[in-house]
């Protein structure tokens, strides 16, 4: 000990020696492997390693339990909490629309904790990126549910580009966007939780910029007039004005442009989803993982559903298991997004009720990210070209996101998985954007991913409200790419129908099921 202390004092005086792994070497000399100590805290190294292996073996063998020590899960036992045997309302779908419905149901209930709301998420535990995704992925902070990591890696909500706008051609869509913009502006008043950090959705108020060719100029001008009547701040720009405002745009083929001046831009979808979920659960909403199957039964020879649990019930099929849990409920809200039609079809409801299938299908959409150091700067809006291609700025370092929806049904990609066709960018997206933004001729593709639209093949608009023959079955789906930005308004609307029996905040009756039965289309001209 005295010798070791002497060497340390010599080292401190001369600055030429230092200790490394129990030995001494000149400062700056090459490193060598540390000499293993024979003991560590009085325990022989071999014995300590053996105990560590024993601990890991025991953890792998002992059954897992809530707050328990073991990690082994018997085959067929589902992960996470089991659903309750009963619930007043079952919301099928744990995306942003489903959690918005759950939040508003709990926020508007007459008596605190007077109603049990259960949200069933199809698969919140996906840990891997979508098949075919590039090396870059949208950042998503982890969310934990007990000891279970929730990634929502294939959820439509977190795979969107996060846009919000008032530039629609239907009054209902404009009104829902304005409601949502006000909600997001005051998000902490609505979704803030006591003693929790404030919510920051990272809103970028850069606006939307729509470009129209001569044949669509009149339609764009009529839409802007309607938007202004609804209170939206939107400017019409001639090609000369467009070039003066955004000199990096090639205005060839552009007859007129519309530019959102207020409450338009983009935000972080994951943060909004997490905020809805966290607030709803703080108000008492319940959550479970699994697939929900709705069932209907005949009552006195007719199908009825006025708060009658026998008309529509739900079964939650547990993930990674053959087990299912029946959940007795009074009301089912179908917010299953791209699989809303499949949910009703699997229950056989359209055939039993003599109705056509719900026209909502999953449609796969690609999002590409690229880098272009000479591209548009901080003032860059979300631009929608005359060809349908779009892009927006992603940060301030020359990074961008964009894509293109197929113009014909025959060119729709297979929705069977979330693989990405990179030739689609090379052959379809890049040429269109490079013609409009000359700087993009030298861009570098960085990554890509795919997500689903809950596409309404009838008129590309959401379907809200009660089923025409089953009054305790409600729908909130089919938004065709607008579900994220309309979620606050759609969730409130459905909650008002369930709890009050009528709309209070917005009159969205035209978006109900009746138009599907009558064949009355509400075509939206602003689908991107």
Task: Summarize the structure in words.
With 528 residues, this protein is of the alpha+beta class. It has 2 domains: 81-127 and 151-204 and 264-359 and 457-527, FAD/NAD(P)-binding domain, CATH 3.50.50; 208-263 and 363-452, D-Amino Acid Oxidase, Chain A, domain 2 (2-Layer Sandwich). Helices cover 28% and strands 23% of the residues. It is globular, with a radius of gyration of 28 Å.
List the helices and strands and how they pair.
Layout: H1 2-14, E1 17-20, E2 23-26, E3 39-40, E4 43-44, H2 45-61, E5 86-92, H3 96-108, E6 117-121, E7 143-145, E8 148-150, E9 163-164, H4 171-185, H5 187-191, E10 208-212, H6 217-229, E11 234-237, H7 239-245, E12 256-260, E13 265-266, H8 269-282, E14 286-289, E15 291-296, E16 312-317, E17 324-334, H9 340-347, H10 349-352, E18 360-371, E19 382-384, E20 390-393, E21 399-403, H11 422-436, E22 444-456, E23 463-466, E24 473-477, H12 483-500, H13 514-518
Helix pairs in contact: 3-8, 3-12, 4-12
Please state roughly what percent of the residues sit in beta strands, choosing from under 5%, 5-15%, 15-25%, 25-35%, 35-45% or over 45%.
15-25%
CATH architecture of the largest domain: 3-Layer(bba) Sandwich
CATH superfamily membership of the largest domain: FAD/NAD(P)-binding domain
Query: Structural class, please?
Result: alpha+beta
| CATH topology category name of the largest domain | FAD/NAD(P)-binding domain
Name of the CATH first level of the largest domain: Alpha Beta
Overall tally of structural domains? 2
Amount of helix: 25-40%
Largest sheet composition: 8 strands, mixed
Shape: globular
| Low-pLDDT segments | 1-40, 125-151, 297-312
The overall average pLDDT, rounded, is: 80
Give the quaternary arrangement of the chains: single chain
Supply the number of helical segments: 13
What Rg, in angstroms, do the CA atoms define? 28 Å
Total strands: 24
**First and last CA, distance:** 76 Å
Biased composition (Basic and acidic residues): 1-16
Domain FAD dependent oxidoreductase: 88-497
Keywords: Oxidoreductase
Protein name: FAD-dependent oxidoreductase domain-containing protein 1
